[in-house]
Amino acid sequence: MHFTTSASVDGVTGRDLVHDGVPGVLWTPPGTATGLVLSAHGGGQHKHAPGIRARAHACAVAGLAVLTLDAPGHGDRPRTPDDEHHATEIRARIAAGTDAGPLVAEYNALQSARAIPEWRSALDALLALPEFAHLPGAVFWGVSMGSALGIPLVAAEPRVVAAVFGLIGATDQLTTAAASITVPVRFLLQWDDRLIARPAGLALFDALATPRKTLHANPGGHGDVPGHELADAVRWLAERAREATVHTPS
Amino acid sequence: MHFTTSASVDGVTGRDLVHDGVPGVLWTPPGTATGLVLSAHGGGQHKHAPGIRARAHACAVAGLAVLTLDAPGHGDRPRTPDDEHHATEIRARIAAGTDAGPLVAEYNALQSARAIPEWRSALDALLALPEFAHLPGAVFWGVSMGSALGIPLVAAEPRVVAAVFGLIGATDQLTTAAASITVPVRFLLQWDDRLIARPAGLALFDALATPRKTLHANPGGHGDVPGHELADAVRWLAERAREATVHTPS
User: What class, spelled out in words, does domain A2-247 have in CATH?
Assistant: First the structure.
């Protein structure tokens, strides 16, 4: 993991990095981090997208370090013809008001297969750094395409102790992965989401095996998660991270 | 409104009262109340049921005054033959594992018709007291039978500025009332509720007209709302009450 540039705002430091060829950014709070958030962006976004930066800043202000990686075919990474095809088709269907859901789900599955090894490798590298040696693992936050990655990632990765998911519907692959998740989950659903059919979102929440799961549903479309919900997710993740650190024998 | 006995625990004072023949209790915080909660209990409960007392205490610790009334046919109030019939039948169906839902809905509709005028009259009386003269109105908290009362009450009563509802399903009457509610609502749903069919609960949340509504769903049965959810509802209601007091011209 190579750090390149560094910038600080309000005591929060953002360091751009490259890990095994994947560009990312690590945000850290002023003092010792009380937890580490793996923050995956959504489809069409990138590591410095405004919402992703705002989420990272809020987490860092709450004492958490935050890692974001550019997803395959996103941000500073090369796009394959398949990435270009899916991006163009999905945008066209949304613009035409036709159902982009199946195509989004297909692309999400491709994405997660490529991205999961990258995130696990980056987690190895971060937990090996002296500044994070006190942490037992990480928490995860990713919605939409970020959950398409995160649900199988968290199912496979025992070092992730809690997760914020949402804005995504059940597929065979995700339902199967959800049935292996036993850590606390906050699941965000947008009641009027035109990309994710409401029953599909509810079915995926239903499939999560963990008894510590809460669904938060709000009016509005895919991109309209209210600010109070994001602020509450920061608080909830910070609590889960502290809980895991306190309860892990050192 | 006549106050009878009074007792204090941890600075929170509970005063039993009778208003127009209806027994109730008013809890008040140590200092000036920052809001007033109308707290309606569920079916088979009463004004001093443990969960209702615990909720009132938590609200008072957060600075809120809390009014609870015994529902018709509940607590210290006489039971009509109709009350007895419904209570016996509902208990029998739950014990037998058969669907008590339609009978619960029928009883709830009877209850709300009797209780709404009582609550509105009690609110008149409370807001006329010098200790609450600074308050523009009240917030409401009632789930299950408490929401069967509360949804039509809040639809009809402009002085209620926010509400916690839940553990209840759509009926024609409730759906119609929900379509008139424009104040912020927190709606609690239990994912494995055997009394309330999940689609009926979701449909009632859907019917609420307010753009400021959030559904919180948790695993477990009708009586298993997690403690963190109740604590969060206290915090949310306290914020809504303060917001209403600040924004109302005096």
Answer: alpha beta
